[in-house]
Amino acid sequence: MAKASEIKVGNILRYNGELVTVTEVLHRTPGKGGAFYLDKFRNIKTGKIVEARLATDEQVEICRVETNDFQYLYEEGDYMVIMDNVTYDQHNIPKSLFGPAVKFLKEGMNVIVSFESEEPIMATAPNHVELEITYTEPAVKGDTSSGALKNATTENGVEIKVPLFVNQGDKIKVDTRTGDYVERVK
Questions:
Q1: Rounded distance, CA 49 to CA 43, Å?
Q2: What is the pTM assigned to this prediction?
Q3: pLDDT of the residue at 153
Q4: pLDDT-based confidence at residue 10 (cuts at 50, 70, 90)
Q5: Cβ-proximal residues to 114 (8 Å cutoff; 6+ apart), any chain
Q6: pLDDT at 147 over 80
Q7: What pLDDT score was predicted for residue 128?
Q8: Which of 1, 119, 123, 171 could link 97 by a cystine bridge, Cβ 3.0 to 4.6 Å?
Q9: What phi-psi label fits residue 75: left (phi over 0), alpha (psi between -120 and 50 degrees) or beta?
Q10: CA pair distance 9, 6, nearest whole angstrom
């Protein structure tokens, strides 16, 4: 347990029985009455923002979270099987923790997962991945207005928009946060 005055942005707390991450800490000293903290928390499971008014000596529980690199092995139903790179222990992580970036994961890729007492609470895919184009329409000569895009299918079945000069068999870099094409890889 810690005092509210010891909370820092980025800490993970157990607040009202839920795991939250601290996004904002404001100290207020009104002209009348005691000082207090006005904090904003983001619920880790639901993503909802919660505001809390805490007295300076109020007790809060700061959770101990371990964050490590893991290797993504394979998909199993609603779970992703990952392996610890040091101990070779395998864990099942719910797909929902990765968010929309889950569709860009390839076997053997490194991911970052955070555990709070053996329970996975957060998972992060790499910001950029390299994927091979398995299908795309050939570009038609003369169809070169600036910024023209066409549909392409990647090796893991994801459809994205790519520039006209990208062909089948090319490797491209994709931003997993937005799903956008970044560049062609040599």
A1: 6
A2: 0.71
A3: 92
A4: confident
A5: 65, 66, 67, 120, 121, 122, 123
A6: no
A7: 92
A8: 123
A9: beta
A10: 10
Q: What is the pLDDT of residue 118?
A: 84
- Identify the CA nearest to 161 among candidates 145, 175, 141: 175
Q: Are 53 and 27 in contact (CB under 8 A)?
A: no
Taking alpha carbons only, the member of 155, 60, 107 closest to residue 174 is 155
Name the DSSP letter for residue 118: T
CB 124 within 8 A of CB 153: no
Strand, helix or coil for residue 141: coil
When pLDDT is averaged across residues 32-52 and rounded to a whole number, the result is 90
Q: CA-based Rg of the chain, rounded to a whole angstrom?
A: 22
Query: Torsions phi, psi of 8, nearest 5?
Result: -125, 155
- Sign (positive/negative) of CA torsion 171, 184, 156, 124? positive
Whole-number Å distance between alpha carbons of 47 and 100: 14
- Distance in angstroms (rounded) separating the CA atoms of residues 4 and 36: 9
* Dist CA 10 CA 166 (whole Å): 40
Q: What pairs with residue 116 in β-bridges?
A: 65, 119
Using a pLDDT cut of 90, give the percent of the chain over it: 39
Residue 36 pLDDT: 93
Q: Which two tokens stand for residue 139?
A: 């570009």
